[in-house]
Specification:
This protein is of the alpha+beta class. The chain is 26% helix and 25% strand. It has a 3-stranded mixed β-sheet with strand order 1-2-3, with no helix packed on it. β1 and β2 form a beta hairpin.
Length: 76
């Protein structure tokens, strides 16, 4: 997991680059990864624009448990 911050005239943009666990990994390992990803977003400044990039091997649904990560504007 890595991120880059670009300073803009009205707000900063944070690009977070992520490579998810493969399907061969255990479910516990994948769950820990996504919990860490979710927690890392809480530590980013609230009013910066956040863009999440990367290779996601998991399928995210529209369940309420994913709302803090995907929010309501998610295309998934």
């Amino acid at each position: 997991m890595s991120h880059t911050v670009l300073q803009g005239p009205w707000r900063n943009i944070i690009f977070r680059n992520v490579h998810a666990q493969s399907e061969k990994k255990s479910d516990d390992s994948k769950d820990r990864f996504y919990e860490e990803l979710e927690q890392s977003f809480f530590y980013l400044p609230k009013y910066h624009m956040k863009i999440l990039l990367g290779d996601f091997n998991a399928k995210l649904g529209t369940e309420n448990v994913f709302k803090p990560t995907t929010e309501k504007e998610s295309l998934h």
